[in-house]
Amino acid sequence: MNAVPLLQLRGLSLRLGPVWALRDLNLRLEAGERLALVGANGSGKTSLLRVLNGLRPPSAGSLSWRQPLRQAMLFQRPHLLRCSVRHNVALGLWLAGQSWRQARKRALLALERVGLAELADRRASALSGGQQQRVALARAWALEPQLLLLDEPTASLDPHAKREVEALLGQISRDATQPEPMTLVFASHNLGQVKRLASRVIYLEGGRILADLPVNDFFNDALLAGNYPEAQAFVRGEVA
Length: 240
Ligand SMILES: Nc1ncnc2c1ncn2[C@@H]1O[C@H](COP(=O)(O)OP(=O)(O)O)[C@@H](O)[C@H]1O
Ligand SMILES: [Mg+2]
Prior knowledge:
Blueprint: E1 7-16, E2 19-29, E3 34-38, H1 45-52, E4 60-65, E5 71-74, H2 85-95, H3 100-113, H4 129-142, E6 147-151, H5 159-173, E7 183-187, H6 191-197, E8 200-205, E9 208-214, H7 215-218, H8 221-227, H9 229-235
Parallel strand pairs: 3-7, 3-8, 5-6, 6-7
Antiparallel strand pairs: 1-2, 1-4, 8-9
Bound molecules: adenosine-5'-diphosphate (ADP) and magnesium ion (MG).
């Protein structure tokens, strides 16, 4: 096992107003893992992603990243700017310090990667929801993140677009041309998607981690029944 984990949480809790959104989380993430966060609405998935991204400081406990660490986050909705598709991707690179010329060049490569190069000069707002999410994915991927955080990235898409974005995520996370495998942490309500994409699954309830298992163990009904009854109820669709 790598001596320095990509990320480590120790006794981390997060309080949002009156609510403890995360409670006493311990988690160690190694490079190359594809971690799925599952649990009912309000269980803490978005809160955990925001903490992992550094958007929210923990209220208690600690969080450490391997340094330096390039990371990017993709939200449920793509949050594109009112300009061209290519501009949207290039801006992220320019903000990260690249020259505008270089940013525009790399933006086009990233758009080719998600199959949208021919729409590069279109207004982003004119694209379908699935295409917009692919633009957001290109924008994140162009930054060459070592850690990619995704909050229900396909939840707002129609079934066809869901499959497209999911397939891209699969390709990106297993890209053998990268010097280091990308580490993925994604929240999902779609258990099929979790099976297809994840290597490890965390089940959250009330801001606590109630199960943290390799993906095959997580979908092993007999194992869950004995040790993780809450996770089993969730997998069976018995938790709203
Ligand atoms: N800005 C906020 N202020 C207060 N409570 C919040 C805020 N955001 C989320 N919460 C609460 O934190 C808990 C976890 O929410 P969240 O992380 O969004 O869960 P999930 O993404 O799994 O649906 C919920 O009880 C939710 O109501
Ligand atoms: Mg959420």
